[in-house]
Amino acid sequence: MKPRSLIAGAYVALVLGFLMLPVAVVVLASFSSTSFLTVPPQGLTLKWYGRVLQSPEYLHAIWVSVSLAAAATLGALVVGTAASYALVRRFVPGRALVSSLVMSPLVFPGVVIGVALLQLYAALGMAGSFVGLWLAHLVITVPYVVRTTLASLHGLDAELEDAACTLGATRLEAFRLVTLPLLRPGLAAGGLFAFITSFDNVPVSIFLTGVASTTLPVKLFTAIEFGVDPTVAAVSSLLILATGATLVLAERWVGIHRFT
């Protein structure tokens, strides 16, 4: 190999190592036998993982996060697909403005969105409700579906639908039987981004969660206020493992790198 290639490879390895160092610290701390975080761990144990899986509070928070992320992803797929199709295949007055409004949650800080929705929900009597939290997550996840679906739609030939209509299909049937199957990679990528965004969200969720709708990231955030123990590291390690496995499977089945 040329010296320039070796230097570039070493530089990339150093950057990746630096970025992965916090992940390694969290994973190592989760195996410590002490009741406080130590790296390298003093002894090896899995009791902190068992404590997480036996804790009603953590299990409830996991269930809330999974159900909320699944509901937000489903809603984002429906709304995002409809919005993308309208922006590409239909005449929409002020298309650029509409597209900018749809994408605006990617620009505004999550804290701003959370505070604004909190004031709105307080006026409407929806503060602390699961429906309000779902609508907030729908707002922040729709842009991810729109971005990937727009990329897929721009790569499709609009005449395919016209050909299906010429052969006797209605517009709805042409979309369902022709366009929708061709959009599956983009929809899968957008759905994955939406699910991860919803599941890991803290800035918006922390303002809108109620007693019965506390998500796992908010539970971790509040638990850190009273001291960090290996239980928090164990939960974080499980999230890292689940996220990594999901991304690997998505890359293998969908080729998610095309949408990043």
How is this fold's topology laid out?
Blueprint: H1 3-29, H2 47-54, H3 56-89, H4 95-103, H5 110-124, H6 130-154, H7 159-166, H8 171-182, H9 184-200, H10 205-208, H11 216-224, H12 230-253
Helix pairs in contact: 1-12, 2-12, 3-6, 3-9, 6-9, 7-8, 9-12
Question: Main attributes?
Answer:
mainly alpha, 260 residues
Give an account of the 3D structure.
The chain has 260 residues and is mostly helical. The protein has twelve helices and no strands. Helix 2 (47-54) packs across helix 12. The mean pLDDT is 83.
Brief write-up:
The protein is built from twelve helices and no strands.
Q: What gross morphology would you assign? A: globular
SSE pattern: HHHHHHHHHHHH
Main sheet summary: none
Oligomeric nature of the chains: single chain
Roughly how many Å is the radius of gyration?
22 Å
Number of strands: 0
Helix fraction by DSSP (H/I, runs of at least 4): over 70%
Could you say which structural class the secondary elements and strand pairing correspond to?
mainly alpha
Would you tell me the overall average pLDDT?
83
**Beginning-to-end CA distance, first to last residue:** 29 Å
Unreliable stretches:
none
- Classify the beta-strand content into a percent band: under 5%
Number of helices: 12
